[in-house]
Amino acid sequence: xxxxxxxxxxPGKVKEIASILEGSGWSLRSLAEFEHVESAEENSExxxxxxxxxxxxxxxxxxxxxxxxxxxxxxxxxxxxxxxFSARYAGESASDADRRDLLLSDxxxxxxxxxxxxFVAVVAIASPDGTVLNVSEGICEGTITFTPRGHxxxxxxxxxxxxxxxxxxxxxxxxxKNRISHRxxxxxxxxxxxxxxxx
Length: 199
Hints:
Elements: E1 2-6, H1 11-21, E2 26-30, H2 47-62, E3 65-75, H3 96-108, E4 116-126, E5 132-144, E6 160-162, H4 174-180, H5 182-196
Parallel strand pairs: 1-2, 1-3
Antiparallel strand pairs: 3-4, 4-5, 5-6
Helix pairs in contact: 1-5, 4-5
């Protein structure tokens, strides 16, 4: 079975990705197996460029095909912020809670009328020689809550209610989130690619 490295050290993200890619025909490996590998930099201006850069970095470092994603929350009232800077929104060492608090604070300053937002994810796969094998995108539209709700998921999940639902990503059952989330939509396309791709 071909091996695919999941290029993230976020345990919540690893679990989510592995669940969606189950049955892809690939053996999924974790960065936890490669403690010597440093973290890839994310300094590009687009989700796609960040995902491709990370996938190439981890593929070269481990000599395995590697999957990496980049995602962000785009809030209408904040002109699309935090966007590609979602993970660094409150500074490099900030916690998920710090980022959520800053987002709610910044949104409150706008008058709180427009709560529209969307999550965007791009998933890239690269081979050890740097070839980009596949890039998939997923988008999930929704709104931002006034306070965090729920204990599931990670990142901004407790603040985001997808359209046509009343619960946040952090409140929804994992199997529901794994059908409708931005990352899920991108990974479902990725899974179709993996099932058809033979090295």
